[in-house]
Structures are given as C-alpha cells and as structure tokens.
Write a structure and sequence with these properties.
Order of helices and strands: EEEHEHHEHEHHHEHEH
Strand content: 15-25%
Helix content: 25-40%
Number of strands: 8
Distance between the termini: 20 Å
Largest sheet: 8 strands, mixed
Oligomer: single chain
Length: about 290
C-alpha cells in the first residue's frame, strides 16, 4: 500500500537517476500517424499514434483526452515518446473532428470505455509493442474515463489520472455555481443528481474505488478552479480505505502553473512523476 504524498513543486528538483530502462530511442520528433481501429461493437474509432525512432519493442500508453467532446491534438514533441514509450491518443466516440454523427455519440461510463480498451487491444496487435506493458492516462474527463476503465476487466498495468472529477454530484453542484450556462456533467449524465441520485452515486469513482485493481497515480493542481483538488483527496481516501495500490501528488507551486491545465514547472513535475509511476509498475524488476 502506497502512502499519500503531497509534492510541493519548488521543493523537488529533477527526478534523479532517470536512466532509461526502455528500448533505446533516437532523440527528436516522434514518428506520428493517424490510425483507426474497431471498438467492441464494430464502430470505427480514431486515434493519433506516436512512437520513438528505433526498432523497439516499446511499452505503450493509451492517453485519453478531456473535454465535453474534446479531441486529441497533434503533437510535435511528446515527453513520454522521448522516454521510450509508444503513445496512442484515442478520440473515443463523442469526440470532435470526425463528423457530426461521431460527435453526437456522446456517452458517459458506457461505450466510450470500450473504445479506450479497444485502443489498448489495437496496440497489442502492433509488432513493435511490448504487449504486457501498456498503461493508461487521462486528464479532466479523460481522468474520469481512466478510473472507469480500470474498474472493469482491462489490459493495463498502471494508470495516471490528472485533474479528474471523482464525485459527480459535487461536480454538478459546483458547475451550477460557477458555470450554469455550461453544465458539462449535466450534459454527460443527461440529468441531475436530484432526479438521478443513484446513478450519479454509482458512476462516481469514489463509489467504485473498491473495484479498481490497477495501480493508479492521482495527480492534481492545487489551484484548479474547474475541478477542485478535493476530488483528488477524496479519491485517494477511497482507494486507501479499500487498500488499493495508489499514490497522490498535489502540485502547489508555482501557483500560476497549477490550474486545471497544468503548465510550466508544474507540467514538468507532472510528467516526471507520471513517468516514474509507469516505470515502477511496467518494469517492477528494475531499479532506477
């Protein structure tokens, strides 16, 4: 059982001894290609695949974007690819950029979870992938999807959830207070906790933490004003209660870097802590 960790960014320097345990790579822009694959129900799902130069085989990450609809953005550089991982950014159903019909298939804790798991299975078909070394990470709604995926049968060995909401009723009430014209949770859930109390509770990660069997790093910025950091603390408490392998990193400074979308030094620290977590569980027999 991991103990809770609060990381004060300015007090922590570069994570030392980060010598690569992974396949040798050649520094530079990642090799990128747009891909598609079939979900469990046969629907075509879209993604962006990034891999390091070299022959591999490489470990891999399925990365899940946030936003009500959202879309994975093309990247010219990728921290995890630079550190020897293949990364698949999944545009699960309901995402932007693939036509109106695709966008309108907005789901919540339903078939979009199948799409993400199908992304991992797609990676396992590729010749340069270490099929038993696949992780998942997501931010915002992508963090919620990450929690939901690792609470059901899945192929992942480690997970990172960043800036994610874990109590749907609390997030609904908070959005009603700060952004009543947006109400993303209401749109995703197609209702409110006042008329769908049980559903809001059942689909909240704090309620199904007992079902999570993948080591998960809970990561949040203390200055997040769209999803309050209390969601991270409550999730860590729930995981601790059920003796689930986890850790929590809350980034406190620089304050301007620790909002909902981490940036600057906070983003650097988030990357470093995430990589350290993934390496620990994907390569348990090796030491840094």
């Amino acid at each position: 059982m991991r103990s809770l960790l609060v990381l004060i960014t300015l007090a922590v320097g570069w994570v030392g001894g980060m010598e690569s345990l992974l396949a040798q790579t050649v520094p530079g822009p990642p090799i990128h290609e747009e891909v598609n694959f079939k979900s469990i129900d046969g629907m075509k799902i879209y993604g962006n695949l990034y891999r390091p130069k070299g022959n591999g085989p490489f470990p891999a990450i399925v990365r899940v974007h946030g936003g009500l609809h959202g879309q994975a953005q093309s990247r010219r550089q990728d921290y995890f690819v630079d550190n020897g991982y293949v990364v698949l950014d999944v545009d699960y159903r309901g995402s932007e950029g693939h036509g109106k019909d695709y966008r309108n298939k907005l789901a919540m804790a339903d078939k979009e979870l199948d799409d993400v798991i199908a992304g991992a299975k797609f990676l396992q078909t590729l010749p340069n992938i270490q099929k038993d070394k696949i992780a998942i990470m997501g931010d915002d709604r992508g963090a919620y999807i990450t929690y939901s995926v690792i609470a059901r049968p899945n192929p992942f060995k480690a997970a990172v959830a960043i800036s994610g909401y874990t109590d749907l009723s609390k997030q609904y009430e908070y959005e009603a207070e700060i952004a009543p014209n947006f109400m993303g949770i209401q749109k995703l859930m197609k209702g409110s906790p006042y008329t769908m109390e049980d559903r809001f509770k059942d689909l909240s990660p704090v309620s199904f933490a007992n079902k999570i069997d993948v080591p998960v790093l809970v990561l949040h910025g203390n200055n997040d004003r769209l999803v309050l950091p209390d969601h991270a603390w409550k999730m860590a408490e729930a995981l601790f209660l059920h003796q689930k392998e986890h850790d929590i990193v809350v980034l406190y400074s620089p304050e301007e870097d620790t909002g909902h979308n981490l940036k600057g030094k906070a983003l650097e620290q988030a990357h470093e802590q995430s990589l350290k977590w993934l390496n620990k569980y994907l390569f348990p027999d090796k030491k840094k």
